[in-house]
Amino acid sequence: MIRLAVKKLTTIEDARSLLQTAVGVEFGTLPPYLYALYSIPPGTNPEANHLIRSVALQEMIHMCLACNILNALGGNPLIQVQQYPGPLPGDIGPHDTPLTVHLYPFSKDALAQGMAIEEPENPPDYPVKTAALLAEAAPKAVTIGQFYDALDKFLSTLPASAWTPNRNQIVDNQFFPGQLFAVNNYADAHNAITQIVSEGEGTSEGSEYDPLDFQDQPAHYFRFGEIFNERVLTRDPGSKSGYTWGPARLEVTWPPAGRDLADPGLHNFSNEPPAAQAAQAACNAAFTQMIDALQRAVAGVEGALGEAVRFMFDLRMSALHAFTVPLNNGQFAGPAFLYVPNLHGDK
What we know:
Layout: E1 4-5, H1 12-28, H2 30-38, H3 46-72, H4 108-118, H5 131-134, E2 141-142, H6 144-155, H7 186-201, E3 203-205, E4 208-210, H8 220-229, E5 231-235, E6 243-249, H9 274-298, H10 304-322
Antiparallel strand pairs: 1-2, 3-4, 5-6
Helix pairs in contact: 1-3, 1-6, 2-3, 3-7, 3-8, 4-8, 6-7, 9-10
């Protein structure tokens, strides 16, 4: 599980710092989720493909919403590339042991990792738990949902003058209609935080916990859980927890273990066939262009988000191709999500 550090918030600068951490966490989940998604063999696992893709798209929206809040408070969001394997930004983990996030191909390991990242405060007892998921958080170490809750409570105390309307806001009705909106005041920020937490962890009303988000769709933790358990999350009034896994199955065909390389960023591709090297270069180029476009978007450049989405499509096509190019040992490798400075020699 990941646990983020939260100290007492006293200034707007404190809130900006937390929001930058939030931006890093939301973006940092994209590579591991996309690596698992892109490694699904074509023509297989349509349900799992849809579920993982939906989570990845919502993480992109969550990152943009966090940037909108930060911009409204006078901050300047940075899109920072993470290294994998490694911890997510701000993660101190339970008992000072951060979760090491890997780029796993589509597998039970990838889904268990997704559940560990998205785990709510007290996950109901219908998912299968591992020892890592049962550890208690260290003092001042909180879940992503609790992290946002602390931020929301502080933002509610700020005067209206703390907010700058229409400052570098990312608003999009083409790719994310109704989901990505401007933040001009606390009410907007509260709505954004509610959406982020609901889609990630589910909702709660008092002591009642609901694994569904505000659109009555399973939260991220439970979407991954459906794939992991190969069962559809189902309301069950006869169950003490209110839900069960199944009985309806979610059909999953797991690829052969070892077919795809994990953590390609640790692999030396210089000794691999030229086609494999070219595939990695194409992935890195598309990822770099996506990062640059996202940075322009969060800085208020009009049209930059559309560019970022197009580069994400380029990354997808490059990644799908990379997973068809064999390495010397017969394995396949997807994108390492490496940023290439001076890609075009003009920066």
